Amino acid sequence: LYDAKRGSGRGKAHFFSAAHQSAILQNIAIEHALINGNLEDELYLEFQPIVEAGNGLPMGFEALARWRSPTLGQISPGLFIPVAERAGLISKLTRLLLTKALHQAGAWPAPLRLSFNLSVHDLSIADGLLPLISIITASGFDPRRLDLEITETAMMRDFAQVTQAIDTLKSLGVGISLDDFGTGYSSLTQVHRLPLDKIKIDRSFVVDIDKNPASHKIVKSLVALCRDMDLSCVVEGVETEEELKVLRELGCDLIQGFYFARPLSVDSIAGFLAGPERI
Ligand code: C2E
Ligand code: CA
Ligand code: CA
Ligand code: CA
């Protein structure tokens, strides 16, 4: 591709390590497959339940993008979403996914909610946001049952534009969730100025919360903060009964994680909803 060597002497570091170089090649392959693929057929959604901490009953589902590429196989969104963002393809993906998600969620009984992830590019008013508003309006899905998730990092990237986009979306009645909270570097003053409905506490604070006093303290103060600001909070990535027990003691409202359910295929949602009473 290019001469990756920096300097000529023996033992000098390579500017691009082999791992970095293969990551670059992988991203090029992903971009190529996104451009040439039939995304309408290849992209689909799974839905992960978000449940009430107290009784385990679902309040809704988060839509999670999945991609089965005929050339590359199954690619995780952690890989292809960032590539789509950098390649200028994300608005197309978001429109396609949101259309599918609203259509599929249309089959769920009220008041179950749909959470959907937006990328920062989706919030630019003219080319990002307006098409999404048309999709929401045309879907017939009650916008008051829709939560749009925006990561903390995205919010902070262009605070003024994001605030304007959020105001526009809220005027439709949709809820706004601050995703991956705690992983960005927002100040509480900024968070306070946004008209948010929910905060999603990132999984990194939950891992080993039953054994790690630092995580325990952080989640405790985040939960208290949500209560002060009158926001509901979702704790993400709960995997064990021990973690759940601590989170219940801390007074968390909502839980999302493998302990309750993995992301489900659209066909298995009805079975999940009909399933046995959860604790
Ligand atoms: P996210 O929005 O933070 O979504 C939660 C991720 O955590 C999902 O990974 C989910 O499968 C995973 N997860 C849930 N519970 C647990 C648990 O108990 N343990 C562990 N280890 N993981 C858990 P997934 O589906 O691979 O998605 C990764 C990221 O890709 C998402 O993180 C989100 O940032 C992005 N993404 C997914 N779908 C979309 C989409 O439609 N649009 C956009 N813009 N981004 C998306
Ligand atoms: Ca999310
Ligand atoms: Ca998250
Ligand atoms: Ca995340």
TrEMBL record:
Q: Which residues form the EAL domain?
A: 27-277
For this entry, the protein name equals Cyclic di-GMP phosphodiesterase Gmr
Give the organism the record lists.
Devosia equisanguinis
Output the lineage of the source organism.
Bacteria, Pseudomonadati, Pseudomonadota, Alphaproteobacteria, Hyphomicrobiales
- Full protein segment contained here: 377 to 655 of 657
